[in-house]
Design goal:
Elements lengths: L2 H7 L7 E3 L8 E2 L8 E2 L5 E9 L7 E12 L9 E7 L2 E9 L4 E6 L3 E6 L18 E2 L8 E2 L16 E8 L2 E2 L5 E3 L1 E8 L2 E9 L15 E5 L6 E10 L6 E3 L13 E2 L6 E9 L2 E10 L4 E6 L4 E7 L3 E2 L1 H5 L9 E2 L2 E4 L6 E3 L17 E8 L5 E7 L2 E8 L5 E8 L6 E8 L2 E5 L2 E4 L4 E5 L6 E5 L2 E7 L6 E6 L1
Antiparallel strand pairs: 1-19, 2-18, 3-6, 4-5, 5-18, 6-17, 7-12, 7-18, 8-9, 8-17, 10-11, 12-15, 13-14, 15-16, 20-25, 21-22, 22-23, 23-24, 24-27, 25-26, 28-33, 29-30, 30-31, 31-32, 32-39, 33-38, 34-35, 35-36, 36-39, 37-38
């Protein structure tokens, strides 16, 4: 039995896999400089360069001038679906989407079988109505409940409203004999939401609710639901699905055959786990990862004071940690949708604000780790001295929206700064909110901390001056 099948038998379904005989990148992109790829699009659909949605304002979405995206703004009169002119059988379809707050949409393969799109942010136990669920079928003549056969995603890794998300759908069309009789049902081979496997071998016995067609055929168009809420799409592409049985793990680097995988999640309280951790192209040896009951998790490097990754969803595969010793096996693998941050130190002295580069590492003799303490909620506060500067660094998860970090320096040195993030793009979306890297996640900082953005090495850095012993606080929301 493969590692993947073992995990499925245990209900563990969030490791990422790919085909060992990987097909070439022969995707076809749907042109979004116009709506010509779609049949009779209604006025609720607009070509745009991007979209804005407000995390706090229900239903709000705005189309930004330009091309490359499509935006649906629903009204009482204008709420048509968007249907491709081209028809598809077996297909691999992927795209980016953005939800308005509390919005609802869906992608119908062959215009018949719906993958739900929904603002499911922060929901711990998803059902078929949540993002990446297979929507239920419906029969008004059915005794008892009219709806049936909906399939919930394995886990919820949906992002907050106003952020771009990614979905990949591998769909196998129904099969028919020479007389036109159906001999096999349609099936979603795999669905990935934000990089995480959330559906596998999900069979549908017929068209789901509100489909464009009541019958079933070998091919059909893709339909995007346009009557339930405001939503945006971009980077829509497809290719013919290649069906094989040669799937192998890619994120565990051709690991040996091992006993039953060890999957770790938080119980009723946060769970802390020391281990090696992969970070970009290196192995971190002083990592600690924290799982939370609401499935908001993070990893911290006690060697640098860097909060270097956060993720939503299942916590970790700890098989390598427990069954093997030494590098590279003494590690864990995050199982959710990971956002990579920075392993660099959180504080540094910038004597020349414009020209002093932020240090990307810490010399061995400059860092003196003092361990960590836990508060009543088991949130850790890390303590260390960096270049003789005493620091306490508390990372907490007050709710399911994200992570809050509070850094306190007992005696700040002159020209001391806290670096919140280094990114390709940092934009403001409110008085105290920033959006990072093409709307991938948010950072919230009170104006009282006087955050500044500087250009550095082709990137942007969001910095907070540390001028007193008062705590500096910010949060990461996604």
């Amino acid at each position: 039995m493969t590692a993947k099948k073992i995990l499925l038998s245990l209900g563990i379904t969030v490791l990422l896999y790919s085909n060992s005989n990987a097909q070439t990148n022969d995707f076809t992109n749907i042109d979004l400089t116009s709506l010509n790829a779609f049949s009779t699009p209604g006025p609720n659909w607009t070509i745009a360069s991007n979209a804005d949605a407000d995390i706090n304002k229900e239903g709000y979405m705005k189309a930004l001038p330009g091309t490359g995206a499509i935006v649906n703004i629903v009204s009482a009169k204008n709420k048509s679906h968007l249907i491709t002119k081209e028809e598809f059988g077996d297909v691999e379809l992927e795209l980016d989407f953005m939800m308005a707050k509390h919005s609802n949409s869906g992608i119908y393969l062959q215009g018949r079988y719906e993958v739900q799109l929904f603002d499911s942010w922060q929901k711990l136990r998803p059902t078929y109505v949540d993002c990446a669920g297979i929507y239920q079928r419906w029969d008004d003549n059915r005794a008892g409940e009219k709806g049936y056969e909906g399939i919930a995603p394995f886990t919820n890794v949906a992002k907050a409203p106003g952020l771009w998300q990614h979905i990949k759908i591998k769909f196998r069309a129904p099969r028919f004999d020479d007389t036109g009789m159906k001999i096999e049902n349609a099936r979603f081979e795999e669905i990935y939401l934000n990089g995480v496997l959330v559906q596998q071998q999900a069979e549908v016995t017929g068209p789901t609710r509100s489909s464009a067609f009541a019958d079933e055929k070998p091919t059909g168009p893709v339909m995007i639901q346009g009557d339930h809420g405001n939503v945006a799409f971009r980077n829509i592409r497809y290719r013919k699905l290649q069906l094989t049985d040669n799937a192998v793990p890619t994120n565990i680097e051709k690991r040996r055959d091992l006993p039953t995988p060890i999957i770790v999640n938080a119980g009723a309280r946060p769970y802390l786990l020391r281990s090696f951790l992969n970070y970009k192209n290196k192995m971190l040896t002083h990592g600690i990862s924290v799982a939370n009951p609401n499935q908001v998790n993070y990893s911290y490097d006690m060697k640098t004071g860097g909060l270097f990754q956060v993720w939503r969803g299942q916590f970790a595969d700890a098989t390598d940690l427990w069954y093997e010793r030494g590098e590279p096996y003494q590690r864990i693998i995050p199982l959710g949708s990971v956002i990579v941050l920075s392993d660099a130190p959180a504080i540094a002295v910038l004597n020349d604000f414009q020209n002093t580069a932020w240090p990307d590492s810490v010399a061995f003799d400059d860092m003196h780790n003092k361990g960590y303490t836990l508060d009543e909620n088991r949130s850790p506060t890390f303590r260390y001295e960096l270049n003789n500067i005493a620091v306490t660094d508390k990372v907490s998860v007050p709710d399911a929206s994200g992570i809050t970090r509070t850094i306190t320096v007992a005696v700040p040195a002159p020209n001391l700064y806290c670096r919140v993030i280094s990114a390709k793009q940092i934009g403001r979306v409110g008085k105290e909110m920033f959006v990072i890297n093409d709307k991938s996640y948010y950072i919230n900082i009170s104006e009282k901390f006087k955050p500044v953005i500087r250009q550095a090495g082709g990137l942007q850095e969001l910095l907070i001056p540390v001028t007193s012993a008062d705590p500096v606080t910010y949060s990461i929301t996604w």
